[in-house]
Specification:
single chain, mainly alpha, two-stranded antiparallel ribbon, 4 helices
Length: 159
Amino acid sequence: MPQTSRDFLRHALATLAYRAAKPLRDAPGGFHSFRAGGDSRSAGQILAHLADLMDWALSMARGAPQWKDSQPLPWSQGVTHFFAALKAFDDYLGSAEPLQAPPEKLLQGPIADALTHVGQIALLRRLAGAPVRGENYYLAGITPGRVGRGQAPPAKEFD
């Protein structure tokens, strides 16, 4: 079945949501301020950056690129902000509105950057003593349009 660039991007966003849900869920108390080192970003700063990336991607898709650095929110509010920004971008991609940015640029810029930062949060969880289980993501139940906190259960996790 042929897949459009928009379909591919929506699958990438669903992948991002699935991968992000694990390390963002059930974070230990105080995790938002946890850092790997003295001048590195805190988990809360990385989470705020994730939402900023999705807001930026949406602004590019609409043809009016705009970057905004938001301040970290308390963890659960930051998670809500990220998933809301992700959904807004996915909703736009799922609409008939014209895509005003090259799909390849949206993937190589904000989407790929967000995947990297999700990995950083997962690493910070491990360093903070609250690791998330590894998973065979090839087997994961990732569905375009499913971009919220509620994701399919893992198909095959491992330690």
